[in-house]
């Protein structure tokens, strides 16, 4: 049997992880409810609850209430500070919902230099925005990028890529 510890290091304990840099900080946001919704989104929202805004690239969401992060025309991530009650799987009216709490890690960047850090990681035109929050970020595809305040950014990244993104931020030149 192979010893995989030689190839992959164990994930750190993210609950208290924090990077403090001049003008910005990064931390992992634990405990958010995340539901991946695909298909007829308008019908899904009617059943899952229409509350909360839909956000795209660089738009601002209210983190105190549920909101929808657009990924594509027929796909979005429903994010909530509280657990969401829904029936997972395919629904007869053309949509599916899947628990994604552990699929995406959520990283928050905050501070006066946050926009500069984000601009270094992506070529997306932040001022133009996009209905979809999915973008290339630090070489990773399909990172969801939006804000929860003027100088506070949230990134949803596939959980397996969080150590890479954290290391990218750690080693970024000041």
Topology:
Elements: E1 18-21, E2 24-28, E3 33-39, H1 41-48, E4 54-55, E5 67-72, E6 75-80, E7 89-91, E8 95-99, E9 104-110, H2 114-121, E10 134-137, E11 140-149, E12 152-158, H3 162-170
Parallel strand pairs: 4-5
Antiparallel strand pairs: 1-2, 2-9, 3-6, 3-8, 5-6, 7-8, 9-12, 10-11, 11-12
Structural notes for this entry:
- The protein has 174 residues and is mostly beta strands.
- The protein has one domain: Gyrase A, domain 2.
- The protein is 14% helix and 38% strand.
- The chain contains 3 helices and 12 strands; from the N terminus they run E-E-E-H-E-E-E-E-E-E-H-E-E-E-H.
- The strands form 2 sheets. It has a 6-stranded antiparallel sheet, with helices on one face. It has a 6-stranded mixed sheet with strand order 4-5-6-3-8-7.
- The chain is globular.
- The termini are far apart.
- The mean pLDDT is 92.
């Amino acid at each position: 049997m192979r010893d995989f510890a030689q190839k992959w290091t164990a994930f750190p304990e993210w609950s208290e992880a924090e990077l403090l840099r001049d003008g910005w900080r990064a931390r992992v946001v634990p405990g958010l409810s995340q539901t991946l919704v695909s298909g007829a989104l308008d019908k899904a929202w009617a059943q899952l609850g229409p509350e909360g805004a839909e956000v795209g690239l660089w738009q601002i969401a209210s983190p105190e209430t549920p909101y929808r992060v657009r990924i594509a025309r027929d796909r979005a991530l429903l994010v909530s500070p509280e657990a969401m009650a829904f029936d997972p799987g395919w629904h007869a009216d053309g949509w599916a919902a899947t628990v994604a709490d552990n699929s995406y890690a959520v990283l928050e960047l905050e501070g006066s230099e946050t926009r500069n850090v984000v601009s270094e990681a992506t070529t997306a035109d932040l001022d133009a925005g996009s209905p979809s929050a999915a973008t290339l970020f630090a070489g990773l595809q399909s990172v969801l990028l939006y804000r929860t305040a003027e100088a506070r950014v949230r990134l949803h990244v596939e959980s397996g890529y969080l150590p890479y993104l954290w290391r990218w931020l750690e080693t970024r030149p000041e």
